[in-house]
Amino acid sequence: MDVLTPRSLDEALQLKAEHPDAWPIQGGTDVMVALNFDRGRPATMLNLNEVQELRGWWRGDGSLRLGSGLTYAEIEHGELRTVLPALAEASRTVGSPQIRNRGTIGGNLATSSPAGDALPPLLIEDAVVECASVRGTREVPLGDFVTGVKRNALAADELITAVVVAPSGAAQTFMKIGPRNAMVIAVVSLAVSAGDELRASFGSASPKPVLVTAPRAEAAGFPAQVAGAATPIDDVRGTRAYRVHALEVLTRRALERVLA
Amino acid sequence: MRITVRINGDEHQADCWEGESLLFALREKLGFPGSKNACEQGECGSCSVLLDGALVCACLVLAAQADGHDVTTVEGLAEGETLHAVQQAFVDAGAVQCGFCTPGLVVATADLLQRNASPSDDEIREALSGNLCRCTGYAKIFDAVRLAAGKA
Asked: For chain A, which domains are there?
């Protein structure tokens, strides 16, 4: 095995082009589990920790660029708390302080798990995933980026460089059900906003993120509409029936918050 | 591959397999067995260390990622024979049963108190939520954290 540690984005993209099978590693909270349990043994690891261009976040013209190396802790504790409140609430529910100090938004996207906590709050804000390679940069809407359970539209020579989002300013919230507050993979999760229209997206209840919308005047029927859009499965964490029921209850509670 | 890591203030080198964790390198190559190896998936916090000042699970850091960086382990908290205030509080409060989770909890508590000298019980609960005690000795652990924070 080789570990390649690029010092710039250009170098990282060059190395990914030369080693398309390389596993990128940023916070390591998913990748290291796979390595520790021998679920994969890549010939090459691409360590992105030293690529400064991927860190932090900054303002563009009307939108924010969240570097793919932005950690949950940075989202939870910084100014983003007020700019993207549902994403900040979701970040606070990820793992433990140790996990939030390392885990990144780019990693959550790359893993493309149905349970990825950052995905629903980003989808209700129409986030776009920036994918870069030596061939150039393209922007893929989040709803198109995730193509199935742990599958996405990233090409073999591409890296996720950023998430671009124009904060709506809409009242919004995030909720998550699990056996305890910390270290929980969502049994079901939900992000809801109330701006010009009602918007919802959920986790652990469909193979890929789904956006559900309705006019504000139809708030009464929205919980049933959200639950009806879910296509969950029975698994070790919960049943299909429980997840559908929970989504309806959570949507009702979320609307009480965001319409208050 | 050879990595160079500043551990508890001193530079150390080790030859590592490219796929091994910082935890494995610390325990098996670098002579710092204080961080404990249990779940290897970031669930238990037994391997908690500070990486460039941030609390992390050493099992989820690739050893190669620590190359050129600063690591503080539980071995780096005491000053010679004088225990760190958090270590002394764990002893005085009887917050140690089997002891396996203790190094991780001590590092996580030291990290908490360095950022927040007077945490509420909720803040303690949140800060230590990534550290499991299989003996379930959480009541005494809370006593120790309050003691170290000067609130007991």
From this structure: 1-48 (3.30.43.10), 171-258 (3.30.390.50)
C-alpha pair distances (Å), B71 with each of B63, B101, B112: 11, 19, 17
Residues of B in contact with A5 (CB under 8 A): 64-65, 67
A56-101: pLDDT as tens digits: 999 988 899 999 999 999 999 999 999 999 999 999 999 999 999 9
Q: CB-CB: which of B21, B55, B130 is closest to A36?
A: B21
Contacts of A182 in chain B (CB under 8 A): 126, 129-130
ipTM of the shown complex: 0.97
What lies within 8 Å, CB to CB, of B141 at 6+ separation is B90, B93, B95, B105, B128, B133
List, for residues B10-55, the tens digit of each pLDDT value: 999 999 999 999 999 999 999 999 999 999 999 999 999 999 999 9
Q: Which residues of chain B make contact with A24, given a CB cutoff of 8 A?
A: none
List Cβ neighbours of B148 (8 Å cut-off, separation of 6 or more).
B85, B86, B88, B89, B90, B109, B113
Residue of B17, B48, B60 with shortest CB distance to A32? B60
pTM of the model: 0.96
Q: What domains are there in chain B, each with its CATH number?
A: 2-75 (3.10.20.30), 85-148 (1.10.150.120)
DSSP A9-62: HHHHHHHHHH-TTPEEESS-TTHHHHHHTTS---SEEEE-TT-GGGSSEEE-SS
